[in-house]
Batch of 3 targets.
Target 1
Amino acid sequence: MRSIVTNEKIAVGAAVLVPLCTVKGVPSVLLTLRSSRLRSHRGEVSFPGGMCDKTDRDVVHTALRETEEELGIPSSTVDVWGQLKPIPNRRNTMTVVAVLGNVGEVDPAKLKLSPREVAAVFPMSFSHLLDPAHQRYTTMKRRHDNYSYTMPVWLGGPHRVWGLTAIILDQVLVAMAADWYRTVLRSSWRQRR
């Protein structure tokens, strides 16, 4: 893997698991559609995860605990590969760490979803993610500080994947499939002049 995988200790506000899996033998990643009942990011595509608790030992524990709560995947069955560098949220009020973990062969229909947090779960195959026909990019501009940045968007699946989830997917593809995937993102955001 590329150097974006890190084991350094970091102060973060939240952690997510990037659940690498196979679905009917096809290498994929599991994504969730957040419940419409949630206060923030309702109805958006995300990875399982959430805020770090005082009882969590580290970001890995946070990501595994939240995944078990949201999808019913036991922590003990996840083979943790490492974590990505922290990413600031869109308001730059906290950072989120993505933990890479292999959950093995999965039948999404048999997962025990928490209806309070998750409306649906769906796999997205790596072949789909790597297909340029499904990749787009959008430029976002923050009004309050005149900051702009480009982020990836994936189309062609059951739901559009964008935002922080797409940025994390971009990092995963850079790390795991650099020979087949080219990002337009840079390691640091650039301020408009």
Target 2
Amino acid sequence: MAAQKATIAYISHGGGPLPLLGDPAHQEMVDNLQSFAKEVRKPEAVVVFSAHWEESEVSIISNPRPSLYYDYYGFPEESYHIQYPVSGNPPLADKIQTLLSHKNISTEMEATRGLDHGVFVPLKIMYPEADIPVIQISLLNGLDPEKHIQLGRALRSLLSENILILGSGFSFHNLKAFFGARDQQSRQLNEAFDDWLTETCMSASLHEFDRAERLMEWQNAPGALYCHPREEHLIPLHICYGLAQRAADKRLSFDVMGKRASCFIWS
């Protein structure tokens, strides 16, 4: 396989549109994502797997001018007028569909769905000029960890291209906990899972078979089901690992709404 030109990153994208509304509880996240975007080579395209789209088969947004999908509720009116006039990349979407079909992974091209906030919120922070074409790809219903690792593996030939591949989720995603009591036990569970996730993604001493096994059996990690009562915000990490198949090169860590969150980068 050719040398890796692509950057792969599992990112925590925050709570709804709040990172774009000046929310102080998201400032550390905003600062980290902005710094990350400045540190990596500017990509020619961005491919995003967002926690907020699940389908029965892998769906790919093929629209050359995708709209935005404001898939959140109860936020200030301004959050429903956010603009990110980015272009799509139909040729790259076609290539991704072909790569997946070669691995017998069924796909569907989606021409009408807009980019959800798991896409436009982090990208507006990272690349506010909206001058890089973007493709969004769905997760699979059922959220099977192994299937999502295989999905990433099927796309490994993309790593020879100057693109950014984002798994956009949240390393901590318990909505009740964000607004509940910030006691010592909740902090310990948050940190225990984050420590486990960091070791799993970053440890150079782990054999790749063992790393994959840990990710597939993530529910057994300390604090796992507290941090992820439902795993849709974790599963984009499995796609990133399937693409990389090695330890991450870098971790970003910050607090969001009183909870520790992490991002993992392969470059």
Target 3
Amino acid sequence: MTTNPFATTIVDTLFDSTANTGTNLMGTAMRLLAAGEPITIEQLATAAGASVADVENAPAAADIEYDDRHRILGWGLTLNPTPHRFTVDGHQLYTWCAADTLLFPAIIGRPATVESTCAATGTTIRLSVDPASGVSGLDPATAVISVPGPDELDPTRVRATTCNPGRYFATAVAAADWQSRHPTGLVLPVADAYAQLRPISDRVLTATEPPRCR
């Protein structure tokens, strides 16, 4: 499998082995949010076996979306609309970036249907993503996604620097302007992106696995 510099940077910077608690919290939050309802910090901490204080030091914590009751609405997977519609078990959800739509089915353990919009042409892009079998039903089949260069990541502004630049495009040609503005970034066919980015979801899953009996 081709090594992807974006995936390597995310794993090494946001989800390194010293950040297991935070990675576990983020993965657990996604699984809870997949039910389509806001979650409290206390609910999340209990489910993750962590403390409320641990949330503040978790990956992309500064970007967590809250409602007016300080319940979590979004953390990668979100209840707030974005260009990336992500439907799980009939629940209409959204993701922060195009790559998330490929990563999150494995993390939450549920298949999803995805609908996004080409950032250049407005073309609707549809696909299904299964945690076991991967991508299917991609329409148009020429669709690609963009992932920013590893040098663009700012751990204090993850959504702005890493998520927002990640978009779907109907074709590689449609992504040419994006590529010129992100010279260290990559434009990948969707199937290739799914395979190359899988180390990110694998890392989150490793951090959220229950300890094995010895």
